[in-house]
Fold these 2 entries.
Entry 1:
Amino acid sequence: MKIKFIWPGETKESCLSKLESNYIKKISRFIKCEKIVFKSRFNEEKSKQIAFEEGEIEKRCGNLNNLILLTEKGKEMDSFEFAKFLEKKLNFQSDDIVFAVGGENGFSENFFKKGMFLLSLSKMTFTHEFARIILLEQVYRAFTIIKNIKYQR
Ligand SMILES: C[S@@+](CC[C@H](N)C(=O)[O-])C[C@H]1O[C@@H](n2cnc3c(N)ncnc32)[C@H](O)[C@@H]1O
């Protein structure tokens, strides 16, 4: 089993891109980790771009039941609850765990109805690039909780 992170386009902000690589490296100490970046259609009108990105995520995640989709409209958890949520998946799920972050325009309401798990990092809206970093840090933090490793709490 591995953890996959899927999103449209590479992170452009160089300091964020560096942080992203650092956290992926840190998470890889605990579990195999794959970042899947696909090219979006940035020149298309907004609704077409969103539909394209949703299709690409769906194609790449395999089973939608394994998909954890990031949206401020999803379920909020504290870091300990999130660690338990992840631990349960690690213990009982045989397929890969897949997280997907939207592009700058997010997802459509219809996509949210497809049965994947919706996860919120906060009720506040972050840029897609910030949301990637916060997600990665929380996944890393969850592993330090699961493995009882010293980390700032
Ligand atoms: C700029 S936001 C798009 C916001 C848009 N209003 C929406 O409803 O999706 C871009 C992406 O960042 C992620 N994101 C931003 N804030 C988030 C939050 N508080 N919790 C979870 N994901 C978030 C989501 O994946 C979102 O699709």
Entry 2:
Amino acid sequence: MKKQLILEDGTVFIGEGFGSEANTIGEVVFNTGMTGYQEIISDPSYCGQIVTLTYPLVGNYGINRDDFESISPAIQGFIVKEAADLPSNWRNEKTLHDYFQIKKIPGIAGIDTRKLTRIIRQHGALKGAICGIEEDVDTVLEKLRASKLRNDQVKQVSTKTPYPSPGRGRRVVLVDFGMKHGILRELNKRDCDVIVVPYNTTAAEILNLSPDGVMLSNGPGDPKDVPEAITMINELLGKVPLFGICLGHQLFALACGANTEKMKFGHRGSNHPVKELSTGKVAITSQNHGYTVEEESIINTRLEVTHIALNDGTVEGLKHKDYPAFTVQYHPEASPGPEDANGLFEQFLTMIESEIQEGASK
Ligand SMILES: NC(=O)CC[C@H](N)C(=O)O
């Protein structure tokens, strides 16, 4: 079934549809990872976006039961050069096509995704539509240009009610802004007694759970769309150790008086070099973000930049000068991607231990 991909700048690509036959509209973003498509598809931070992969062969090892980052994928659509019909892997359970049919996600294959990526890099983020070949391009373009991107993605993907993920270790309240399961896995691996709470939980409700530390998860959209979370973080600051990832990092920066801005085309992939300023050490990191903390806005705050991106110098990590709190823009839970940054979970737990020691000696 032929389908077309129409970008708001008027570019039209023709390809072959797979997965759901529905039409879709979203912000088109590119990911440069060579593997990890299942983790990408199921990362809730892509809610509202149509994702394209620069790597051309997608679906080769199928979809398995282990690699999901959420139960239900939140992406609007998927664009690939080639979608494998015959995956080969001992863990393979179904093809990309079958999975997308079940989850009602429209896909389009046969697209020159590197050309598409160049267009996005030149123009900056673009809205796009995947639709049937019979649709009139001008009509779709009109609809596309008039369409507004959603601003309630966190509400869509966050848990509606709190739930526990018990352990015998330190208690961590994990605020779910669209959490990747990898974060929960990393905390559970370290025996943390985790309670996952919705994005709009208040600081008082969180403190009532007697946390030893609070984690602020990743999540979709513009951090400024979730003002209630900014208030909550501001009220938690100094009362409990904090660790934030991606959207959690951006919300933390806003709560501390810094600013965030939309990037031209963002960072999405599993090969982004990040430098830790205190040691000069470089880690290869997994990333997925379209917003960033504005560096100049940090000057008037009590924040310190701890990490920067080597590709474009943007802020990749922050810590508070007065309180036990640090955050990173990249994904230390490493799914998909390298495990270079995994030590940050240890850092969080060490911070929790030293706060407990300090409390005991007072
Ligand atoms: N992965 C994330 O948490 C992404 C954060 C935010 N939605 C952004 O695009 O910048």
